[in-house]
Design brief:
Layout: H1 11-19, E1 23-27, E2 33-36, H2 38-43, H3 52-56, H4 63-77, E3 79-86, E4 89-97, E5 104-110, E6 128-131, E7 137-140, H5 142-148, H6 155-158, E8 169-174, E9 177-187, E10 193-199, E11 219-223, E12 229-232, H7 234-240, E13 254-255, H8 261-269, E14 278-282, E15 290-300, E16 303-312, H9 314-359, H10 368-391, E17 399-402, H11 404-419, E18 423-429, E19 436-439, H12 440-458, E20 462-473, E21 477-479, E22 482-484, E23 487-496, H13 526-536, E24 540-546, E25 550-558, E26 585-589, H14 593-605, E27 609-613, H15 616-623, E28 632-636, H16 644-651, E29 660-664, H17 669-676, E30 681-685, H18 690-704
Parallel strand pairs: 18-20, 26-27, 26-28, 28-29, 29-30
Antiparallel strand pairs: 1-2, 1-5, 3-4, 4-5, 6-7, 6-10, 8-9, 9-10, 11-12, 11-16, 13-14, 14-15, 15-16, 17-19, 20-23, 21-22, 23-25, 24-25
Helix pairs in contact: 9-10, 9-14, 10-13, 11-12, 12-13, 14-18, 15-16
Length: 705
């Protein structure tokens, strides 16, 4: 009997469904099979819950594209069907929407003529053969056997140089001698490949196929030089939803070449640019459907016509768009990281020299307030740079095992203050919520950013809902040019019923400095920061929105099977910065002149002796003088030439006890690991103040005592 519960069919229909001779399946809106009948289980491999395209993929190629087309059409018209030729024969796939429901009933009907020879290719006038993975010929139809004078054993017996891709020309060893042919190659399952052949005339640009277009197992259209469709086989008509209008132009069917289609067709008619595939957008097929079109030329009695080979390129185009988006985000991340590094150097110089000026002014001095403003704004700029580092994923995460319920509970008071009294904040938790591994502080920042955005979208009143739940993905989830692997996840949803985001703006909201708010109301870094933190934590974040109806942000965190770590004990109060005079010889290595000037003056002001080097090579040259005895080295991490950890390790060969303070606007993963592996070293993040710099150097020297 059928597998799985099925509330879609009523009791009167169950027997009809179960024993229908056609393969019947019930599929939910996500594409997963909910139920199947006896015939379906005999025809297809798979289990209840498997994606339909995965089950059909064992029967036919490009199953995903076929399922997508029929599902999209059925959602609009309640029914859609398509005939497909496979190695097992010809099948008709039909998708029906169930009245009053969202599920689709799929049927697979075998249209093969079982009264004739078993292999349907025997009926083709077009020569064809099938080879296995080793090159052995497994099957040749009658037309092929006549062409070569019998049965060949392997591909090498047919071709001296076998064709490697569709549309290529090759020399066939025919019964009456060598002959030029054009091959259409169709990959199959189990390592098999089918070849369909058409001869080439003595005119190198002329191709005259044997039989009709209908004989080819690929979508083909014959065109006149002006682009008018003369003939199209059934597969082309089904793929592009062509009508019966004989005056239809190719430009009515596809678009997006980048230049006039008429020019492309004219060049092809003259023999230019043949067999070069172009990816175009279908006008008549489903939304966002793309096809790859390759043109060939036929000259018959002086009349020129074109043959267009059509392949579904929707999945290819989707992968291309996904790759472009990935490259774009990676480039933005690299730019953000580089900008953050340079900004931190500038901010170190600005705030550092500001500190030096403030040492020469009393709080009652008229200029003191101006200096404080400079210092505060430098700190604000440092905070923005920190958000850039979060987006570029060059920050350092302190990962721990967390229960999302506890994290939100600790954060609730602050979130309520952020949203105000007029907005209701509602939290819903799965009672059996699994744990995740993340940086608590960064996770709190993500949640606050999302809640603040939701508050701004509500305009003063409404409701924000935060929901957590467990989710098990049985198959890969693909959406928004990302792929979430199968597995267990903790899902966090932040929902508001505010103004929403338009469809053209939605794909851009995670990009740095892009904001939907009015000028001056936002930096455009909140969501890009959230994106960077989530990705760096191994999770995924998606947004769904509709103008006037609100927005939903959904976060997928991989679950972590270890128990939640107990809350860490409260840290002791931060030790007051030590501003007393100090002593010692410091080697300062910094390639940025303004930072080096400030650091040198700050250390000398506190009583240190300082020698400067503007690069690692200059520092190593100074250390060659054995009479110079440095108490501590203060070095930048990222510099032209050798980086900080590299030159320090080299210097340690002669001075193994040398103590080091590394400083950087950021340290990427590799250099940070190297720094951690250097003994007797500490890290000082830029931008830093005068007191932070001198206190760090003093503490590290005292630790050596």
């Amino acid at each position: 009997m059928r597998r799985g519960a099925n509330s879609t069919l009523d009791a009167a229909s169950e027997n009809l469904f179960a024993f229908d001779p056609r393969a019947m399946l019930i599929v939910d809106t996500a594409g997963a099979v909910k139920s199947s009948n006896v015939a379906a289980r005999k025809l297809l491999d798979g289990n209840i819950g498997d994606p339909l395209d995965k089950m059909l993929g064992k029967l036919m190629s490009n199953a995903s594209a076929i399922v997508f087309r029929l599902q999209a059409k059925a959602s609009r018209t309640d029914m859609a069907h398509e005939d497909v030729i496979t190695r097992l024969g010809r099948f008709r796939l039909t998708a029906h929407r169930v009245a009053g429901g969202e599920d689709l009933v799929w049927s697979i009907e075998d249209l093969s003529d079982h009264g004739t020879a078993r292999h349907s290719a025997e009926r083709l006038s077009l020569p064809m053969f099938t080879i296995g993975g080793s090159g052995a010929v497994l099957f040749m139809n009658e037309a092929m056997r006549k062409l070569v004078g019998g049965r060949a054993k392997n591909l090498g017996a047919l071709f001296a140089e076998p064709p490697r891709k569709s549309g290529e020309r090759a020399t066939l060893s025919g019964e009456k001698g060598p002959m030029e042919v054009m091959a259409v190659i169709v990959p199959g399952k189990l390592g098999r490949t089918e070849y369909f052949l058409a001869p080439v005339t003595e005119d190198e640009s002329s191709v005259q196929p044997i039989g009709s277009l209908e004989d080819f197992p690929v979508a083909l259209i014959e065109l006149d030089p002006e682009g008018r469709i003369i003939e199209a086989n059934r597969l082309a008509g089904s793929l592009l939803e062509l009508g019966d209008d004989n005056t239809q132009l190719l430009s009515d069917v596809v678009e997006g070449l980048g230049r006039p289609l008429a020019d492309w067709l004219s060049d092809a008619s003259e023999g230019k640019g043949l067999h070069r595939p172009e990816v175009l957008k279908s006008r008549s097929g489903p939304d966002e459907m793309y096809v790859q079109v390759t043109l060939g030329r036929i000259i018959n009695d002086g009349d020129v016509s074109l043959i267009a080979l059509i392949n579904d390129a929707t999945e290819l185009k989707s992968l291309e768009a996904q790759f472009v988006q990935s490259q774009k985000m990676q480039a933005i991340g690299q730019l953000a990281g580089g900008v953050a590094h340079d900004f931190n150097n500038l901010l170190t110089a600005i705030s550092g020299h500001c500190d030096l000026l403030m040492l020469r002014h009393d709080p009652g001095d008229p200029d003191f307030a101006d200096l404080e403003q400079i210092n505060q704004n430098a700190n604000r700029a440092a905070s923005l740079v920190g958000q850039l580092l979060a987006f570029s994923r060059k920050q350092n995460l302190q990962l721990e095992v967390l229960d999302m319920r506890d994290t939100l509970s600790d954060l609730t008071h602050l979130l309520n203050r952020l949203v105000g009294a007029q907005i209701n904040l509602r939290l819903t938790h799965d009672p059996n919520l699994m744990s995740v591994r993340a940086d608590r502080r960064q996770l709190e920042q993500v949640l606050m950013n999302l809640v603040v955005n939701a508050r701004d979208a509500l305009g003063g009143s409404g409701e924000i809902a935060i929901e957590t739940r467990n989710l098990k993905l049985t198959s890969e989830l693909k959406r928004d040019r990302a792929a979430v692997p199968a597995g267990d996840y903790v899902v966090v949803k932040v929902t508001d019923d505010g103004c929403g985001i338009s469809s053209e703006k939605l794909p851009k909201i995670f990009e740095p400095f892009y904001t939907t708010k009015k000028t001056g109301d936002g930096t455009g870094l909140g969501l890009s920061t959230a994106y960077g933190i989530i990705k760096q934590s191994g999770g995924f974040i998606f947004a769904d929105s509709e103008l006037g109806k609100g927005t939903v942000f959904t976060i997928y965190f991989p679950t972590f099977d270890k128990p939640v770590e107990p809350p860490k004990e409260a840290k002791a109060p931060v030790t007051q910065l030590d501003t007393r005079p100090a002593a010692g010889m410091v080697l300062l290595v910094e390639d940025e002149a303004p930072v080096r000037a400030f650091a040198s003056r700050a250390l000398k002001y506190r009583g240190f002796q300082v020698m400067e080097a503007d690069c690692a090579e200059a520092a190593l040259a100074l250390l060659e003088d054995k009479d110079l005895d440095f108490d501590i080295v203060l070095t930048d991490v990222i510099m032209p030439g050798m980086d900080g950890p590299t030159w320090v390790k080299q210097a340690r060969e002669d001075r193994p006890d040398m103590r080091v303070v590394f400083m950087s606007g950021y340290a990427d993963g590799s250099t940070l690991e190297e720094q951690i592996s250097v003994p007797n070293s500490v890290f000082l993040a830029k931008p830093f103040s005068l007191d932070e710099l001198t206190s760090t150097v003093r503490r590290h020297l005292m630790a050596a005592a």
